[in-house]
Amino acid sequence: MHTVTSRSATLTGIILPVVLMFVGAYFTFTAVQGNHGLFQRVQIQAEADRLADVHADLQAEVSRMEVLTRRLSDDYLDLDLLDEQARDVLGYVRADEVVLP
Questions:
Q1: What was the pLDDT predicted at 12?
Q2: pLDDT at 5
């Protein structure tokens, strides 16, 4: 009877640490590689930084277009800009101008 208890204690002494080691390894792997792990967080942050740069570029373009729109509005008409836009759209060049490609 004493051998059954010692065999059971030895089996428990070996199996329990091995099972706990595998459980710990699983949670460690999931914390690093999982859907919400460290690597995923780094990828999401890099994508957020890239999109912030794109947003800043688009915001600058919108600001530039707002200025051009205001300069061509009824309240404030920039004749030089109007002339430039008309020439660009219609493709006209005056006889005394030199066009560089």
A1: 75
A2: 66
